[in-house]
Please model this.
Amino acid sequence: MEQILDAMEYSVYAYDVEHIILDNLQFMMGASYKGYERFDAQERALHEFRKFATAQNVHVTLVIHPRKEPEEQALNISSVFGTAKATQEADNVLILQNENGVKKLEVKKNRFDGDLGSVSLGFNRERLLFVEKVVVWERTNV
Model:
């Protein structure tokens, strides 16, 4: 954890980084923590990331994989793996949803102005990135 925070601090100082994406919390925790130790370590990490983001005035996006849910059930804030602290500390909670093969990005929490919503995504294979999927409606004569 100390090495990650040092690298983040260096990036902010040397390159004026304003947004850091950490992928993913479970991987950073490794296999050395078991049971409740894992949750305690996760809470300490969340506290350190939140403190860093506030002190350095940067946005930290932390990827946390969801717990296993039934396939037919949509993911929600309670699907976030670990303790509730992850979503309580967050300014934003975004969930990548896959509903019947349709991918959507959902804003489940927005501390700044409260706006929530979702956008359907398509994948641009040529550029290897997700883009907003624009739905074109055709009017039919009935």
